[in-house]
Amino acid sequence: MTLAELEALICTGESEQLEFKRSTSQLRSGCDTLCAFLNGRGGTVLFGVGDSGRIVGQHCSDASRRELAEALRRIEPSAQATIDEVPLPGDGDKRVIAVRVPPGQGMRPFFHDGRAFERIASSTGRMPQPVLEGLLLERSHPIQRWETQKAVGITAADLDQEELLRTLRVGVQAGRLPEAALSDPANTLERLQLLRDGAITLAAQVLFARGVAVLPQCQLRLARFRGTDKREFLDQRQLNGHAFQLLEEAILFCQRHLSTAARIPRDRLEREEQLAIPLPALREALVNALCHRDYSQQGAAISLAIFEDRLELWSEGGLPFGLEPAALKREHASRPRNLLIADVFFRRGLIERWGRGTQVIVEECERAGCSEPSYRVSGGCFVVTFPLRVGLGAESKPESGPESKPESGPESQLARSVLLALEQGPLGKAAIADALGHRSISASLNRTIRGLMAEGRIAPTIPEKPNSRLQKYRLITTSSEGQVP
To answer: What is the pLDDT of residues 103-114, one digit of tens each?
Structure first.
């Protein structure tokens, strides 16, 4: 670290990742703070800088260096600290000692002299017992977690082989699996880390089991209620299946019971169709529920309820490892309860970036002009609630007004969903199916695509080769050059 870099760092002031200490006479409290940094986002302690940020420096002898090294050894587990000595101009004996530590994720909690510390803003304090217990559980989790246990009486023959192959194809297409995976499908489970000592794991059973091999807790409860309470059902279903089946069924249920509005925004010529809740936000919430719920609770389920004024999504297990609902709408650490299950969803392209799912839901709602959802923990469950606007709620009529117009003519929910998916850009059939949460390219999807082409709503990107494996489909928009409306 140079003197200029040191001065620039000091100008930022004490913070969640920076602490000033006048000298190594405050070594004990400085190491408490380094311990807190390790338990958080990492940080730097500067010895030789006063509380006001004034550089005072200190004399560095071999004895003081040994004392610092000994103090760092009292942090457990062993911490990887970087120590820089920055000479001060005009006094060759005085220096500022900068001690930096990285975030200790995976090794937390860290202790200094047997006590754990946390950093809140520019203050260091003892870590509360519930937070400490959560971090201890998190540290032991990779070895002991439920999903890594061996499935009882399950073999590869009990898994949905078509879904496994689809995972390979989509993963390779998304660049999240090597192309060599397609030439060796027999090793798919090993490649996805779903075997333990050669046996099928519970993660594989959740993701791909079919028929009688499906776990009882791999259950989805769907309900559409009349009004705003649970007194009267309009539709009710209870389904068991592997994770990708449940995702598809939940999306289809929402498309059936949530209204779609068609409008023409002021800044566009083509009409825009919008589900009452944006499909990307809905899919993200469902994927989060499937990835992060507590599968160890037998008889537990994911519950999706649609009311006149809201949609509620409940998943068993609350939030893992001390996360709080308030943290989910800002940058936060990724702490998946089921690492293997989440990793397969990532390879399928259903998770874009670790730790961003709850923020993506909010962003998609804002982009669509919808109210953002709320997050809470209730009765051991994590609950996502999407408000439904009057006029864009469950089974309601589309909005009307100067910026919108009613839908002209009947159109299936599937066709509307295809058009919404293509708003992101040209997509192939497999990518469209995946965007809709479907397990495969169904006959109904093929019919819908042909129908939309016949209506002049979409067009192939390679019209001269209609059956090309590279074929994609794009929206046809209205323009001043006379394109098909």
So the answer is: 876 678 999 999
